[in-house]
Amino acid sequence: MFSCVGYAASSATAPLQPFSFERRDCGPHDVQIDITHCGVCHSDIHTVRSEWGESAYPCVPGHEIIGRVVKTGAEISRFKTGDLVGVGCMVNSCRHCPSCDAGLEQYCDSSPTWTYNSPDTAFPTAGAHTYGGYSGSVVVDSHFVLRVPENLDPAAAAPLLCAGITTWSPLAHWKVGKGHKVGVVGLGGLGHMAVKFAVALGAEVTLFTTSPSKVEDGKRLGAHRVVISKDAKAMEAEANRFDFILDAVSAEHDINAYLALLRQDGHMVLVGLPEKPMSVGAFALVGKRRSLAGSAIGGIQETQEMLDFCGKHNITADIERIRIDEVNEAYERVLRSDVKYRFVIDMATLPKAA
Question: Where residue 13 falls among pLDDT bands split at 50, 70, 90?
């Protein structure tokens, strides 16, 4: 094992502070990565504060990891020292269930090993849990390490490992492309990536937002049209128009208003995570044979395909870079929606010792 420094919360109410801990040594199938950047995801806040169930403490969050390879295991030839790589939300899975066999490790029947706050069966000490990317380095099974195109800004590429793949996966699964009319609900960390991807895939993209102040930004990001969803007449004018709607809103809202905008056999997919259950009117689905689905992150192969697409089209997230000692303030700003559109921590600002 070797010593590592990160930022951790010691309880659901404690701020993130410097923390020293042990990483496992690089095994024959592992890759050791010096982390250069890590994105701040809303799910980091939920987990740190035990809002999705009791978390394991100390909790070192972070699953939008970018860095450089510093060591590879004896069995690894796919990566070499100096490679620019990424690690997303998963660092292991069972590898043998139907989902894993299909390259859909995110839906592993035994649950994936998440990058942080997950039982760590690879660690030599029993009962250990995983520590994430708010840290100086990480050791990961090579299957879950992704190659990042060198032409991308590493900091702006970090959110692709969660916000990016969360929006790419449903667009890819439902084969969104040229000739499709696509709606994106909400312009935040997820929504701004959905707009960029759908436009690059060739779709006609309409952004739905409650905020008139986001109209110009939506157009800057590539949206062909922007509709203020609080305007009832404007919403009525969009009825039966869309082939596909991606709902990226985590706040409570009326999804029936958006289901009514789908054409016959249209699909609406949820990637946001509202806290309370939502009411769905049966007639909104039955009348036009519409479908309502949900989608998580993508598998490893799909995530690599997304990164390659981003390299080809020079797509990254819109970010604000922060120092590691600004992360607690960043959490409060995320909760106020005071970021366009993702915070990314420059890990060069991490102290050498806790």
Answer: very high
Q: Strands, DSSP E only, in the chain?
A: 2-8, 17-23, 30-40, 65-72, 84-87, 90-92, 113-114, 137-141, 146-147, 181-185, 204-209, 225-228, 242-247, 262-270, 291-294, 319-323, 342-346
The 3-state DSSP class for residue 204 equals strand
What residues contact 120, with CB distance under 8 A and at least 6 apart?
Answer: 113, 128, 129, 130
> Is the pLDDT score of 70 beyond 90?
yes
Return the DSSP state at 330: H
State both tokens at 311.
């390299």
Angle between the 189-200 and 163-173 helix axes, to the nearest 10 degrees? 40
Predicted model pTM: 0.95
- The H-assigned helical ranges of 53-114 are 98-101
Tokens 């596909």 appear where?
244
What integer pLDDT is reported at residue 297 of this predicted model?
97
Phi then psi dihedrals of residue 31, to 5 deg: -130, 130
What pLDDT sits at residue 124?
87
Q: What is the pLDDT of residue 274?
A: 86
Q: Is the pLDDT of residue 228 over 90?
A: yes
pLDDT tens digits along 131-181 = 999 999 999 999 999 999 999 999 999 999 999 999 999 999 999 999 999
The pair of structure tokens assigned to 128 is 């250990």
The whole-number pLDDT of residue 354 equals 79
The vertex-167 CA angle with 165 and 173, nearest 5°, equals 90
The conformation of residue 9, written as its DSSP 8-state character, comes to B
Measured in whole angstroms, the distance separating CA 76 from the mean position of its chain's CA atoms is: 27
Long-range contacts of the stretch 319-322 (C-beta < 8 A, 24+)? 319/39, 319/155, 319/156, 319/158, 319/159, 319/343, 319/344, 320/344, 321/155, 321/345, 321/346, 322/40, 322/346
| Letter string b/e over residues 316-340, b meaning 16 or more CB atoms within 10 A of that residue's CB | bbbbbebebebbeebbeebeeeebe
CA distance 219 to 214: 9
Residue 46: strand, helix, or coil? helix
Instruction: Tally the C-alpha atoms within 13 A of residue 47's C-alpha that lie toward its C-beta.
Output: 23
CB 115 within 8 A of CB 139: no
